[in-house]
Amino acid sequence: MDKQGVPAAVIAALGLTQVIGYGTMYYSFSILAPDMARDFGWTLEWVFGVLSGALLAGGFLSPFVGRWIDRFGAGRIMAWGSALCALSLLMTAAAPERISFTAGLVATELAANLVQYGAAFALLVQLQPRAGQTSITYLTLIAGFSSTLFWPFTTLLHTYLGWREIYVVFALMNLGICMPLHAWLSARLTKSARGDGERAAPAPVIGVLLEKDRRAGFLLMVTGLSLQSVVSSAILVHMVPLLTGIGLGTTAALVSTLFGPAQVASRFTNMMLGRNLPAQSLAVISASFMAISVLILHLLAPMIPGAVAFAIIYGFGSGLFSITSGTLPLTLFGSEGYGRLQGQVLSARLILSAVAPFAFVIAMERLGYGGALAIVASLAAAAILCYLAVGRLAAANQKVSD
């Protein structure tokens, strides 16, 4: 078995592009949104509605992106994607009115599909399939600092610049930093695929599911990942308002800051101690952390210790979820056609995640915070059942193959 891993320089470069990609096109938005709303005479809800629509459009594009990645290589797609990200950010910054702003934001989220996790995971798998799970873990550890870095960085920029000028800065970062790094990674990928001299082209990973069970396994996996995406999106977008609404008041913002470090800590712990843990088991643990954290918040609110426990445990679940979204498809279905598979999975996840924040708001208004949290916990529990079923299917297939 080929035990050669992906070079540290490759993971570091790709990690930097993920920090910039998510920071400039996702995490910075909540800080700049009020400025955007004032500029166009919109309510803040309308601006976030436009973002949700843009994310929804990205979900419909994802299957096509996955096919392009398999056909042309993830590195090449990401290099072109960086250029398109820069162009779309400039388009958004220059928008004179609402329609062009909406078009620019949609273009930005469409371009983001070409450079964020789905493409990055595929690049690592294409470089070295048998080291895919380990390298994905390393990558998510680095990328986990995106919110931690870009929330204060964007806030600092915003003290001196308007949102339009900041988007220009972000466009230059995608063009001047991410595009050259992705071009370099593309060259590495091309060289690796050819094999050279003493080193043969990397051996593929064979999925644990047999052909007869692949359809059922795919449906269970996509359902589990999509349900967990709904939970993640609903809670993350509303974390501070949720904690405030259940009685924490001004302490809510402070408690919510525990989420980021907990997310990174979970990835580091998995990197150190969970290398041999099957992806199916990691998925169950991730969804369990999310379900338990929401139940703790529901039962112990508004006590601060309960809210602290919620933020930390939820952060652990969210951190592991980023890993399992890349490693579970690889384990179950192998490295052949991994880009296409990731595109299909990401499409379902993005479409449902775009709707989740609105659905959660409606649930909170009609059922109260307790009722909304109970629904979210139930969705996480349903995801656990899907992962357990996938695990049993994988175990049965492994016995047959042995």
What would your notes on this structure say?
It is a single chain. With 402 residues, this protein is mainly alpha-helical. It folds into two domains: 8-194, MFS general substrate transporter like domains (Growth Hormone, Chain: A), CATH 1.20.1250.20; 211-401, Up-down Bundle (Growth Hormone, Chain: A). 84% of the residues lie in helices and 0% in strands. The chain is built from 15 helices and no strands. The protein has helices spanning 8-27, 29-40, 44-72, 74-93, 98-112, 117-127, 132-143, 146-158, 163-194, 214-248, 251-256, 259-273, 279-300, 304-333, 338-401. α3 packs parallel to α6 (117-127) and α10 crosses α15 (338-401). The radius of gyration is 21 Å and the shape is globular.
Short description:
The protein contains 15 helices and no strands. The protein is mainly alpha-helical.
Q: What structural category do the secondary elements indicate?
A: mainly alpha
User: Would you identify the regions where 5 or more consecutive residues have pLDDT less than 50?
Assistant: none
Mean of all residue-level pLDDT scores: 86
Strands, count:
0
Mass-distribution shape: globular
User: Helical element count?
Assistant: 15
Give the CA-CA distance, first to last residue: 17 Å
CATH architecture field of the largest domain: Up-down Bundle
CATH topology of the largest domain: Growth Hormone, Chain: A
Strand content: under 5%
Radius of gyration: 21 Å
Number of folding domains?
A: 2
- The fourth-level CATH homologous superfamily of the largest domain is MFS general substrate transporter like domains
Oligomeric status of the shown chains?
single chain
- Please identify the top-level CATH class of the largest domain: Mainly Alpha
Helix content: over 70%
Major sheet summary line: none
Order of helices and strands: HHHHHHHHHHHHHHH
